[in-house]
Design brief:
Blueprint (H helix, E strand, L loop, with lengths): L1 E8 L4 E9 L6 E2 L10 H14 L3 E8 L2 H10 L4 E2 L27
Length: 110
């Protein structure tokens, strides 16, 4: 299964494909800490640079899909917009990543 790392604008109108990895199926989740992905050091730095350049207008997301077309359809189904690029900004097809820990949130009881 391919895991797609992408930037989605704050309005969820567009997204930019950042990178593609090999790994287990994952649900769509926003990434707050790139270190959780346990990528090689040079790839981590490249990803951090791109994120830093776009941090005011874009959020980092990841999800798995069998194909790029399936990814686009999944994002559209959730109300997202069109991709701004079809080729990833970074070439990381040979890198595999494991499960990314889920972010803990607090729920209000009652």
């Amino acid at each position: 299964m391919k895991i797609y790392l992408y930037l989605q604008d704050k309005n969820k109108e567009n997204f930019k494909l950042l990178s593609v990895f090999n790994g287990p199926a994952t649900k769509p989740k926003q990434i707050h800490n790139i270190a959780d992905l346990k990528l090689p050091a040079e790839v981590t730095e490249q990803v951090k640079e791109i994120i830093h350049e776009h941090k005011m207008e874009w959020d980092v997301w990841m999800e798995s899909a069998a194909t790029y077309r399936e990814l686009v359809e999944n994002i559209k189904f959730r109300g997202g917009g069109l991709p701004l690029n079809s080729a990833p900004l970074l070439n990381t097809h040979s890198i595999s990543i494991g499960n990314v820990p889920a972010r803990k949130t607090m729920l209000k009881k009652g």
